[in-house]
Amino acid sequence: MAVGEFALIEQLQGRLGGGGKGVLLGMGDDAAWLDPAGQSLVTSMDTLVAGRHFFADVDPADLGWKALAVNLSDLAAMGAQPRWCLLSLALPMRAEGYSPWLEAFAEGWHTLAESTGVALVGGDTVATDGPLTLTVTVLGVAEQGIMRRDAARPGDLIWVTGTLGDAAAALDLAFVARGLPGYDFAGPATQAQALEARRLRPLPRLDFGRAAQAAGVACALDCSDGFLADLDHILKASGLRARVDLEHLPLSPALRDCIDQDLVRWQRWPLTGGDDYELIFCAPPSLTPALLNIAHSCALPITAVGQILPADSQPTESVDIYWQERPLALPGIRGHQHVF
Question: Is CATH 3.40.630.30 correct for 2-142?
Answer without folding.
Answer: no
